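Reviewers of the previous submission asked for a worked example of the structure-prediction workflow described in the proposal, so we include one complete record here. The input consisted solely of the amino acid sequence. No template or homolog information was supplied to the procedure at any stage.
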Amino acid sequence: MNDEQIIGKAIVFIENNLYEPIAACDVAKAVSYSYYHFHRYFQAVMGETIGSYIRSRRLTQAAWDLVHSEKKVLEIGISLYFETAESFTRAFKGRYSLTPTEYRKNGIDVLIGNRQSAQKPDKTIITYAGLDPEIMMIPATYIMGFRFKTTITGGESVTMWQRFNNQIPHALLSNKRYGIFEAGETCSSDIFNTDSETTAFVGIEISENYPICGGMQRKKLCGGKYAKFIHRGTVDTLKQTYHYIWGIWFPKSGFELANRDDFECYTERFTGANNESSEIDIYFPIK
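From that input alone, the workflow returned the following structure tokens.
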């Protein structure tokens, strides 16, 4: 097993055991290393101790649970092994500058709302489950499809994909399909919440002069510099990939998010929502 696989296996173990009483020695054991050697190796590669990393991930998970579950604040803290309400509140406020109660009240979402840029670049980042992005320039692309308003808690995209798939011209069936989250003022981290209404776009790649079908719209997806990730697995595990990108990769990457659309691209490698071999390309605009 090479260095990247060792760290990746350790992080997967942590991800799968956030709600279990794991310690640094358990992580070392999971990758068949002595604690003495592995904790030094992990810190050299990741820039923090195993214990610090686990605590940081639990805080990120707590933020997710505050917005996306009905659990009581204390229940969330205890389930993630913060010993008291005071220690949970103190650690959470130190990370997010808000108490857990304030965070829940504001409805801030850790995956999309928390888009702060990294303060220090870290070129030694080892990625989780093979999610090592390709930094690339992409050209402008034209897309035909439907624009619609949505929120984090809404299920509008499923309905719009069904509508689009029922109307797609047969001649375009082999073209790339796109699910786009359009950048806008309502996406800024200081005002974003689960009820913030923004726009999304689903459609298929077309040539610049392709005639637009009735009821659909044309969108020009701006080109530029992007970090391209590949999600492998079923669609219902997609949020775990986003959790990794926002919660782990971006804070350590040294990149700043650019004010352009981020999007998913579905190619011939996407073989179905429930197929574990499916692949979805995820693009984030960077400066």
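Residues 134-285 form a domain with the Multidrug-efflux Transporter 1 Regulator Bmrr; Chain A fold (CATH 3.20.80.10). We consider this example representative of the routine output the project will generate in years two and three.
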